[in-house]
Amino acid sequence: MHIQVLKSKIHRVKITQAELHYVGSITVDEDLMDAANIIENEKVQIVNINNGERLETYVIKGERGSGMICLNGPAARKAQVGDIVIIISYASMEFEAAKNYKPVVVFPDDHNLLY
């Protein structure tokens, strides 16, 4: 039996940009992607702390070291610049393996940068 478990998350980052007229996705600073073990095109869930919105999309690489977190396309309607979000990725794994799996959790600073 396979179950879905938390693979990794980027905890409490600020939306820096929202581009409504863009093909959908979320652009994430590549440093944050690497730290959270998230790859380009990976499906993620976005949870908006400010308004309770939740959505699923996929990740595209943002400029390394920029702190960029940009919601693109229709997702741009779910948050405003300055909103705090959590970016969550999940993995499917065998039940017994999941019991011992340790997810990666990244806590960026107030500028979406790593300490």
From TrEMBL:
NCBIfam families: panD (TIGR00223). Substrate binds at residues 57, 73-75. It catalyses: L-aspartate + H(+) = beta-alanine + CO2. The active site is at residues 25, 58. Its cofactor is pyruvate. HAMAP family: PanD. The modification Pyruvic acid (Ser) is found at residue 25. Pathway: Cofactor biosynthesis; (R)-pantothenate biosynthesis; beta-alanine from L-aspartate: step 1/1. Belongs to the PanD family. Its EC number is 4.1.1.11. Keywords: Autocatalytic cleavage, Cytoplasm, Decarboxylase, Lyase, Pantothenate biosynthesis, Pyruvate, Schiff base, Zymogen. Heterooctamer of four alpha and four beta subunits. It comes from Indibacter alkaliphilus (strain CCUG 57479 / KCTC 22604 / LW1). One of its GO terms (molecular function) is aspartate 1-decarboxylase activity. GO terms for biological process: alanine biosynthetic process; pantothenate biosynthetic process. One of its GO terms (cellular component) is cytosol. Binds 1 pyruvoyl group covalently per subunit. The lineage of its organism: Bacteria, Pseudomonadati, Bacteroidota, Cytophagia, Cytophagales. Is synthesized initially as an inactive proenzyme, which is activated by self-cleavage at a specific serine bond to produce a beta-subunit with a hydroxyl group at its C-terminus and an alpha-subunit with a pyruvoyl group at its N-terminus. The keyword Iron does not apply. It is found in: Cytoplasm. The keyword Repeat does not apply. This is Aspartate 1-decarboxylase.
